[in-house]
Amino acid sequence: MKKLGIYKKVILPGCIALAGLFSSCSMFDDFLTVYPTNQVTGEQFWEDKNDLTSVLASCYKQLTTSDVLKRMFVWGELRSDNFILKSEDDQNIKDIVNANLLPTNGWYNWSSYYRGIGYCNLVLSKGEEVIAKDPSFTESDWKPMAAECKALRALYYFYLVRAFRDVPFNVKANDTSEGARDPMPQIPSETILSFLINDLENCKDDGMTDYGNDVYNTSRITKNAIYALLADLYLWRAAKNSCPDSAAKYPGQSQRDYQRVIELCDVVIADKLHEFQKEKEYYYGSTDPSKMPLPIYQPTSFGRIQDLPYQELFGRKGSLESIFEIAFDGSRNINSLVTSFYGGLDGGNHQSGLVGGSSIYQEVDLRPDMAQSVYCQTDLRAVESIMYQTNTTSSSNDYRVIKYVAQEVEVLDGSNVRKAATSASAANVNYSGIRSTSSCDANWIIYRVSDVILMKAEAIACSCEEGDPLLEEAFNLTNAVLDRSNPMMESKYRLKYTSYSTPTALYDFVMRERQREFFAEGKRWFDLVRMAMRDNSTQNMLNLLVAKYASNSSAIKAKLATMNSLFSPVLKDEMKVNPALVQNPAWIVDEDIVRN
């Protein structure tokens, strides 16, 4: 594998160079609408492949915008048990954390996502037209580009469905202003998920397998990225249809969906393992025949632990273990999510962001996978995720998010990584390459191999009966993810399948491991919602959620008691311009909406 020291000199083809062309373009001002302009929607614009590539670049560029990127965190993570506020300056953020979901809160503005969808619709509507005009552009050239664009569109919609459930849905580009503002109602999430799944099933094997560039292979949609997204869509639909009402309406579909998750994940795991073996990289199981070989990096130890997995994923970026990540170069585009919510170097000092680790991250257990804390004392992720620092100006301590902020993590004593819990021994962990808030180039990872491994394990736990041999495979997969972050764990503490041999025990283990592995990666709230959908109840997820609240937990449980309350309200301003929209009944505060 080529190392990525030249990363900052390479970026998605055309994405940055063409950004200026679209930065002031107003053709996507109204959600779901592609407005006509003299340049882009005019027929004279669509002459050859370069025109398609230009707008495809904008589909990616939109992902890097602050409005899209920050909502990946706010919608997918902020309401979870992972975080507490370190600053209450933003009242809208404070309201979300306290479960006061108001339809006037600007964080529920979804227009930036529909702008991205608009770009995708536009490209997909023009492909055949360009084939007819450009002799050098063939159907075989168009198919991988179309698959790439359909996956990006599905990703935008998947965020909307997970955050809002039922949303307006449109897959056609409007070439004229006629009807551009026609009312468009929400479509049931089941209908949207089924369309996206069928759409990707039909094009999944058209995706590119190799762009010929290490950076492009992780920062553009590949065949593996489509498979991973498709597995995630199936996993969500399967959980939704597990409840009795849905199971009666869609008999057998949940079970079929879980089986499809397993099949898709197997393809990705096998392909990534081939990549690791081809590049002769060190991967989990490569030196120990008793472990299943998996395409995930292992830490290296020479008296101290060099956290190679963290360095490859969150430091160098674009690793073999990554499947799809949003690319930033730190100059022309900056990761505003990390700088705003996690912090970084500012004026030479390491400043905290808006959030810090909640109380469940502030202690570690002696043994792994215990109920009292998220991490155990040998889990490298305890210090990859949270940087403990004594606050010299107050009696409180500072639990800063360090994931994505530091580029490298080195642990001097892996037998107890949280020796850094006192200032006297803080030198046990070395953080290097702390990114600046003014030039943060951290890529935002959407999918990596751990996602695929744990999606497969979850699907097995949810679909197999006790005694099924697949349950042990799911345990081994999940334990492999945990094990690689605990290289100094004593053998007496290592987990055994006999403690996780029932589907319920295994499922709970998988969900706990997802929390450990994907802290601060924008997934935890969505995981909790998926758990509640599968249970057809908010009770279990609320018991986890309220652990971070020192007080007021009863009020939080009351606010989030219904399934409707797990999904966001429709922004009041959207309802003014689109009279077909219906408010989420959990958050109706004002029926007197003046329509424009």
List the keywords.
14 strands; two-stranded antiparallel sheet; disordered C terminus; 596 residues; four-stranded antiparallel β-sheet; alpha+beta
Radius of gyration, taken over Cα atoms and rounded to an integer in Å: 23 Å
Broad shape: globular
What is the helix content? 40-55%
Instruction: Give me the number of helical elements.
Output: 21
The helix-and-strand class reads alpha+beta
Q: Any low-confidence stretches, pLDDT <50, length ≥5?
A: 1-39, 175-180, 391-395, 420-425, 591-596
Strand content: 5-15%
Strands ordered across the widest β-sheet: 4-5-12-13
Number of strands: 14
The major sheet is characterized as: 4 strands, antiparallel
What does this structure look like?
It is a single chain. The protein is of the alpha+beta class. The chain contains 21 helices and 14 strands. The protein has a four-stranded antiparallel β-sheet. Strands 1-9 form a two-stranded antiparallel sheet. The longest helix is centred in the middle third of the chain and has 27 residues, at 253-279. The protein starts with 18 loop residues before the first helix and ends in a 19-residue tail after the last helix.
